[in-house]
């Protein structure tokens, strides 16, 4: 594998690792309604597992309510079941063809628990990105030992991988700080 391919592959893995963490942040419930809480849930519809956004319209008519309107009325029960089995901690209220999710205000203790969850998710993301860095460095050291690149190219590639690591860890840190501020805002 060429040096440029290794650098590109390492960056792609870091991007994916950061995206996973940022998506998880979106699922952490704050005191206000957000479609992100449920759009990523999987629903057993039509004999296969589908994302919520593929089987229903998800809206937030007010700051404390999420409304889910299935495209097909036969999916009301599977959607309700998917929400109940998820870890979002909200009980769905079924009203005919509409599912309502009232978002209760968060207690101070629950806010602190969610901040800890955000910190844990951020740390998992940092660990994943550092793992991507380690794998990338191992790959470039292999091709350097094989004589495909010089010491100078090795040093430059190591510096580039560290720059990418700092960039994506910084992205996670920034998102974690913003999510924490959102959680602590009353």
Beta content comes to 15-25%
Structural category:
alpha+beta
The whole-angstrom Rg is 21 Å
| CATH class categorisation of the largest domain | Mainly Alpha
Multimeric organization: single chain
What is the assigned CATH homologous superfamily of the largest domain? Ribosome-recycling factor
Based on DSSP secondary structure assignment, what is the total number of beta strands?
A: 6
- What is the rounded distance between the termini? 52 Å
Q: Mind summarizing the main beta sheet? A: 4 strands, antiparallel
SSE order, as H and E? HHEEHEEHEEHH
**Number of helical segments with 4 or more residues:** 6
CATH architecture descriptor text of the largest domain: Orthogonal Bundle
| Number of structurally distinct domains | 2
- Spans with pLDDT under 50 lasting ≥5 residues? none
What is CATH's topology name of the largest domain? Answer: Topoisomerase I, Chain A, domain 4
Which range best describes the helical content: under 10%, 10-25%, 25-40%, 40-55%, 55-70% or over 70%? 55-70%
Instruction: Give the overall average pLDDT.
Output: 88
**How is the largest sheet built, in terms of strand order?**
3-4-6-5
Shape call: elongated
């Amino acid at each position: 594998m060429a040096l440029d391919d290794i650098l590109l592959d390492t960056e792609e893995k870091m991007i994916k690792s950061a995206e996973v963490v940022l998506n998880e942040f979106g699922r952490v419930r704050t005191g206000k309604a957000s479609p992100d809480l449920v759009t990523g849930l999987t629903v057993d519809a039509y004999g296969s597992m589908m994302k919520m956004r593929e089987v229903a319209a998800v809206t937030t008519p007010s700051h404390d309510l999420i409304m889910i309107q299935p495209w097909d009325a036969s999916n009301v029960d599977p959607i309700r079941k998917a929400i109940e089995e998820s870890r979002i901690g909200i009980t769905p209220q079924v009203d005919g063809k509409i599912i309502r999710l009232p978002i209760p205000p968060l207690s101070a203790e629950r806010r602190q628990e969610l901040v800890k969850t955000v910190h844990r998710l951020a740390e998992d993301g940092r660990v994943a990105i550092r793992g991507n860095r380690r794998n990338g460095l191992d790959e470039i050291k292999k091709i350097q030992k094989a004589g495909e690149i010089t010491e100078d190219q090795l040093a430059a590639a190591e510096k580039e991988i560290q720059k990418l690591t700092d960039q994506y860890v910084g992205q996670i840190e920034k998102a974690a700080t913003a999510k924490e501020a959102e959680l602590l805002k009353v």
